[in-house]
């Protein structure tokens, strides 16, 4: 406690000395830090208000209602507390005062060439800006507009360069750091108040990416397996009647003792489902369709009709788990 008290006393004494030696410069620099401290406290209060008002509960409700990709999930929340006309006017006044102090300190150096160059540069900025604004009504050519824009850009760079190299550089640096700190606080509040929407969006993108990778790798492995089997002397024939990697019908292979059931079954109406009801696997649903009820295969990204529900219930079409060969009864398939 004594150490903290001593540090505070030393900081106050140092500030008083700087204030006596360079009053204008010290006050101008202090404006930025006072503004940032006040904005920081207001940002904390704004975030607390967001939580108390149920901001995160509303975010969850919006995500459930609109889905992960909806722009409506994002909100400005309580950002209006630290970003409004009053705050921007105060910030503009502080920046204006600090810029004027930097210019005064530049002229106080009494370097004639620097003062003359600064005046010429300032006149060039004002002249080019006025010409570009009034030129819109006078149908200025694109070439002239480009020339004025380039000259204005160069003049602004020279303007900042002269202030940075002057005795007012600390004031100008404090001005830039204060503005940057304010923008960072704004971005941080927006991030915290939209963290659930950002997380839902990122999670959905990751899941879709995983599904795409799994789908591509699954297709590649099945294609390579099919080409290897067909090149082994023709003893085993692989035919997918359904045309989907998750549903397989196979012809018999009498020469292999441990041949899976889907390879021994030659009935094209017997469908073997790969990775049935597993994570990122395939699923079956009973669906009410406009032309009648049917059984649908869903692999996480795409869906496809296999047969009518009547054909499945009558036993014309049957479904099995690819790994075990166990039958999937129609009664076990849920409605979509």
UniProtKB/TrEMBL annotation:
<keyword id="KW-0812">Transmembrane</keyword>
<feature type="transmembrane region" description="Helical">
    <location>
        <begin position="146"/>
        <end position="164"/>
    </location>
</feature>
<feature type="region of interest" description="Disordered">
    <location>
        <begin position="225"/>
        <end position="269"/>
    </location>
</feature>
<feature type="transmembrane region" description="Helical">
    <location>
        <begin position="27"/>
        <end position="48"/>
    </location>
</feature>
<keyword id="KW-1133">Transmembrane helix</keyword>
<feature type="compositionally biased region" description="Polar residues">
    <location>
        <begin position="255"/>
        <end position="266"/>
    </location>
</feature>
<feature type="transmembrane region" description="Helical">
    <location>
        <begin position="195"/>
        <end position="216"/>
    </location>
</feature>
<protein>
    <submittedName>
        <fullName>Uncharacterized protein</fullName>
    </submittedName>
</protein>
<feature type="transmembrane region" description="Helical">
    <location>
        <begin position="171"/>
        <end position="189"/>
    </location>
</feature>
<keyword id="KW-0472">Membrane</keyword>
<feature type="transmembrane region" description="Helical">
    <location>
        <begin position="86"/>
        <end position="108"/>
    </location>
</feature>
<feature type="transmembrane region" description="Helical">
    <location>
        <begin position="115"/>
        <end position="134"/>
    </location>
</feature>
